[in-house]
Amino acid sequence: MFRGEVTAEEARQFYEHSYRHAYLRLMVIVSGLYQQYNGKNSYFWQAQQLT
Predict the structure, then answer these.
(1) Are the CB atoms for 8 and 1 separated by under 8 Å?
(2) CA gap 39, 25 in Å, rounded
(3) What is the rounded CA–CA span in Å between residue 24 and residue 51?
(4) End-to-end CA distance of the chain
(5) Would you state the pLDDT for residue 25?
(6) Which of 21, 28, 34, 39 has a 20 to 30 A CA-CA distance from 2?
(7) 5: which DSSP letter?
(8) Within 10 Å of residue 7's Cβ, how many Cβ atoms?
(9) pLDDT at 38
(10) CA 48 → CA 12, 37, 42, distances in Å?
(11) Is the overall model pTM greater than 0.70, yes or no?
């Protein structure tokens, strides 16, 4: 943008696309972690069964 290689609008569109894509990836990771969460008691019960 500063060197005249892209316009301000192209830079904004690139940034918005990159930001949305990164946010979507984060949401997928977080939703996967929430789906795997069984509650505090379940987690400790499973850990106790392993010992």
Answers:
(1) yes
(2) 24
(3) 38
(4) 59
(5) 97
(6) 21
(7) S
(8) 10
(9) 72
(10) 52, 17, 10
(11) no
Domain coordinates in residue numbering, the chain: 1-25
Q: Which residues of 10-48 are buried (b: 16+ CB within 10 A; e: fewer)?
A: eeeeeeeeeeeeeeeeeeeeeeeeeeeeeeeeeeeeeee
Whole-angstrom distance, CA of residue 15 vs CA of residue 39:
38
Q: Using CA atoms, how far apart are residues 46 and 36, in angstroms rounded to an integer?
A: 13
38 closest CA partner among 51, 26, 49, 27:
49
pLDDT at 1: 63
pLDDT in tens, 1-51: 677 899 999 999 999 999 999 999 999 999 998 888 777 777 777 788 876
At 14, which amino acid appears?
Answer: F
3-state class (DSSP) for residue 26: helix
- Which two structure tokens, joined as six digits, stand for 30? 């977080």
